[in-house]
Amino acid sequence: MMQGIDRIPDSAGHIVMKEDGAVVASGGDLENDEVMADQLMRLTRLSLKVLQSSNSSANFRRLSVIWDDFQYVITVSNHRVFVCKRRPDPVV
Amino acid sequence: MEKPLDRHLEELMSTPGVTGVVCADTKGLCLAAKGVGERASSGLFSSIAQQAAQLHPDSKTSPVVCLETDQSMILLKNHNSVTTAIHKTLS
User: What is the pLDDT of residue A53?
Assistant: First the structure.
């Protein structure tokens, strides 16, 4: 069910949701964060609308929301929305 | 009045990989567009940028939103009440 999202090395938290927004699993910083799950779901739906409205055959691959010190990476697969909160790779 | 904005858009369009640019205000009104970017999507771009900023409203900076497909990507950022969407091809 989790598809290994809880084992991503630099993950600070994760949420797995159904298409209707119901949280299937969560952990780390995002554990039991229903408010964040709802906002992330809204963002995902808006993003998918962009692709639908552009009449292109492009398939949704990934949505990233990037701040200086962390980012949310969102993907959709098998009727599930997977969200991972990640810290960026340290710059040498 | 629009010349500085047009000049910035031309500059962006000359960047390798950039295929289109759309600028929208906070209400989704399209301020300028060039290339493949659809003017009709300006409302969605503005909504996405605002929704992304709502994830962490205490943050001093607005996030960059990157929407990737198997062929291209759209980069979104809100700055000074203007949302800019940049369409890029995947290199």
Answer: 79
Query: Chain A residues with CB inside 8 Å of B68's CB?
Result: 61-64
d(CA B21, CA B37): 6
Tens-place pLDDT, residues B28-78: 999 999 998 778 899 999 999 999 999 999 999 999 999 999 989 999 999
- Position A6 scores a pLDDT of 82
Q: Answer yes or no: do A63 and B68 touch at CB < 8 A.
A: yes
Does B64 contact A68 at a Cβ distance shorter than 8 Å? no
Per-residue pLDDT tens over the stretch A3-54: 688 888 889 999 999 999 999 999 999 999 999 999 999 999 999 998 887 7
Residues from chain A that touch B38, judged by Cβ atoms under 8 A, are 53-54
- Contact state of A64 with B65 under an 8 Å Cβ cutoff: yes
Write out chain A residues lying below 8 Å of B19, CB-based: none
Contact between A49 and B44 (Cβ < 8 Å): yes
Query: Residue with structure tokens 């808006």?
Result: A46
